[in-house]
Specification:
Helix content: 10-25%
CATH topology: Deoxyribonuclease I, Chain A
Order of helices and strands: HEHEHEEEEEHEHEEE
Shape: globular
Distance between the termini: 44 Å
CATH superfamily: Endonuclease/exonuclease/phosphatase
CATH architecture: 4-Layer Sandwich
Oligomer: single chain
Number of domains: 1
CATH class: Alpha Beta
Structural class: alpha+beta
Strand content: 25-35%
Length: 260
């Protein structure tokens, strides 16, 4: 059954559609989730395109990048970007390989408060989440960057097992604060929207727009943005055509307050 599900997910997502950003109304908040492919991605260029409005039709009033596989010592990392551009960052180390730290990170044009690292159940590799709070239109919003397991041993199901990601989603949901927020990450949802992790997060974040296409190798929807917004707020979401040097496409969301 898992094999059929995987083949269905791959076969039905052979072409990723890049949906236009919509009218050039400045978003109150633009948010991107992006797996940087072990630090290989061009973070400065992506941040510049986000801040300038190239990805959203108009420069957003505030913006946040939710990063996975941000690696220290490779290219420009989150801390260096923060120092050179006057931004704010919260970096959560996940594990070390070859003397370099892989991390989940949040980079924001707004100050980050109540920052917290969340440890997820270990299935094969260590997995974490970075949590912080920002304020948009006088409204506190939590933001989360996370990265779930991609596979476990063959004795536990290998790539055809979605149980590991389901357990990590459950643990993350228990750790989240109440109220509105945005969660982004590489969830490694190889088997599609029926996966427990995808389903559970969609239930917790009811204002999430429909997915707009695959984010990995033009076949799989692995990278997600989930929204739980205050009353009267709306969100749009699209997959960016440019991978910016990574093997994952960034996913950008635009959030508009009641007057947007």
């Amino acid at each position: 059954m898992y094999l059929l599900a995987l083949l269905f997910a791959v076969g039905c997502a052979t072409t990723r559609v890049d949906v236009p950003a919509g009218p050039a109304t400045p978003a109150d908040l633009a948010v991107i989730t992006w797996n940087m492919d072990a630090g290989a991605g061009d973070l400065p260029r992506l941040a510049s395109d986000l801040a300038s409005g190239q990805l959203t039709g108009a420069p957003p009033l505030s913006y946040v990048l939710l990063l996975q596989e941000a690696v220290s010592g490779v290219g420009v990392d989150a801390d260096e970007l923060t120092r050179t551009r006057g931004l704010h960052a919260f970096v959560v180390p996940v594990y070390e390989r070859d003397g370099r730290i892989r991390a989940d990170a949040i980079v924001s044009s707004q100050p980050l408060r109540d920052t917290r690292a969340i440890t997820l159940p270990r299935e094969r590799q260590p997995r974490m989440a970075a949590l912080a709070t920002i304020t948009i239109l006088d409204q506190p919003l939590f933001v989360v960057s996370t990265h779930f397991e991609n596979r476990v041993s063959w004795l536990r199901g290998g790539i055809f097992s979605d149980g590991a990601r389901g357990r990590q989603a459950q643990a993350l949901l228990r750790a989240l604060p109440g109220g509105p927020g945005i969660l982004g990450g590489d969830l490694n949802t190889l088997l599609g929207p029926a996966e427990p992790a995808w389903r559970l997060l969609a239930e917790r974040f009811p204002d999430t727009p429909p997915d707009t296409g695959p984010t990995f190798r033009d076949r799989l929807v692995l990278d997600h943005l989930f929204f739980d917004l205050p009353d009267g707020w709306t969100a749009r979401r699209r997959v960016i055509a440019d991978r910016y040097g990574s093997d994952h496409h960034p996913v950008v969301g635009m959030v508009f307050g009641p007057s947007g």
